[in-house]
Write a structure and sequence with these properties.
Keywords: Amino-acid biosynthesis, Aromatic amino acid biosynthesis, Lyase, Phenylalanine biosynthesis. The chain is α+β, with helices and mostly antiparallel strands and 369 residues long. Helices cover 24% and strands 32% of the residues. Bound molecules: prephenic acid. Prephenic acid (PRE) binds next to helix 1, strand 5, helix 4 and helix 6.
Length: 369
């Protein structure tokens, strides 16, 4: 089999890259035979970081979506929500797919990563560390999602300092590394500091110790081989009895805003089919002001009834909505029975260079370990 190709927001050492090389994120090649649906033969279980996967950093989430749609990659790892700062709106906008560019892209898995942020500066610029910091940093770089995750620290120490959004935390560290004579700093991970050769001036600057980002794993539904691969994110939470593993389904829809009760009519359908709603999000429809696309995540217990319930709900939704779309079903990794301790161990990572995975940089130079 050709190596699996996995796309994510680069450059290397972004949080998205850390998810790709998480040892807990395993792909099981299941020799699933339609006639033997209950007797799965698990041929191999490997993390994306193993040499059988090729990691392809992308400049944007849109590039990752497009690589999946064009079948240039098997999986995309995309952040969708942070426990401190809420939804990643760029991801919701891509899932909204207002111009029908990503018709075949669906969610097939999720992963929760504990996110620890550091303030990064050029090597040698503050030899006495944070205790000797003289207040001279004039500009900060990071991904727009991060400001709200470090709000308390930033309000206390960097209140009136210029903030510049960049495409990822790793990009922020790269920029600082390229500006040795500027009084600038990046907010990114310790892993990004090591990779880009900059120093950690202050670590754990996130507001909350439980700061966690949920990532979605995407695939193209027309690609047969990804249908045969099972994303096994942690044996901690998976039972052999499929009906006990809860599943989530993501559905987007829009309703006629001038019709009273249109949203209520849509939502009651989930209740009718025993589908519990776990989140609701909205984004502007961009067709008319103050009209929205709704995103609903739902699931039912026991989960072997999920598929049937979802397909009935979708049929009914088509009757009462202007448009609706099934954006995929995957195994719930947060599950109600999950203890916080196991969630933390699921998302905690310690990186060294041997864990970078086999990566192909956009300009062609490979880093393989
Ligand atoms: O910038 C990165 O390193 C990313 O992978 C993106 C991203 C995000 O968009 O939420 C991922 C996790 C953290 O919440 C911060 C940034």
């Amino acid at each position: 089999m050709d190596p699996l190709k996995v796309v994510f927001l680069g450059p290397l050492a972004s949080f998205s890259h850390q998810v790709c090389v998480a040892p807990q994120l395993k792909v099981t090649i299941s020799l699933l035979d339609v006639g033997f649906a209950n007797s799965r033969i698990q041929a191999a279980a490997e993390s994306f970081a193993k040499s059988s996967s090729v990691l392809l950093p992308q400049a944007s989430f849109a590039d990752a979506f497009s690589a999946i749609q064009k079948q240039e990659a098997d999986y995309a790892v995309i952040p969708c929500e942070n426990s401190t700062n809420g939804s990643v709106v760029q991801t919701l906008d891509l899932l909204a797919d207002r111009n029908n560019q990503y018709n075949d892209v669906k969610v097939c898995g999720e992963y929760y990563l504990t996110v620890r942020h550091c303030l990064l500066v050029n090597k040698g610029s503050y030899p006495n560390g944070w205790t000797g910091y003289d207040g001279s940093i004039r500009k900060l770089y990071t991904h727009p999602q991060v400001w709200g995750q470090c709000d308390k620290f930033l309000s206390q120490y960097f209140k009136d300092i210029e903030r510049q959004d960049v495409s990822s935390t790793s990009k922020a560290a790269e920029i600082v590394a390229e500006e040795p004579n500027e009084k600038t700093a990046a907010i990114a991970s310790r892993f990004a500091a090591e990779y880009h050769g900059v120093n950690v001036l202050k670590e754990n600057i996130e507001d909350r110790a439980d700061n966690t980002t949920r990532f979605l794993i995407l695939r193209n539904v027309l690609v047969e081989r990804t249908a045969r691969l099972d994303l096994d994110i942690s044996s901690l939470t998976t039972t052999q009895d499929e009906s006990l593993n809860t599943h989530k389904t993501l559905i987007s829809f829009s309703v006629n805003h001038t019709s009273p009760g249109a949203l209520a009519d849509a939502l009651v359908i989930f209740k009718t089919h025993g589908l519990n709603l776990t989140t609701i999000n909205t984004r502007p429809s961009l067709r008319r002001a103050w009209q929205y696309i709704f995103f609903v995540e739902c699931g039912c217990t026991p989960s072997d009834q999920n598929r049937d319930a979802v397909s009935k709900a979708l049929n009914d939704l088509r009757q009462v909505t202007e448009a609706c779309r099934d954006l995929g079903t995957w195994r719930d990794r947060l599950g109600q029975s999950r203890s916080r301790a196991s969630l933390l161990s699921l998302g905690q990572h310690y990186f060294d260079d041997s864990r970078m995975g086999k990566c192909i940089q956009p300009h062609g130079s490979d880093t393989a370990t």
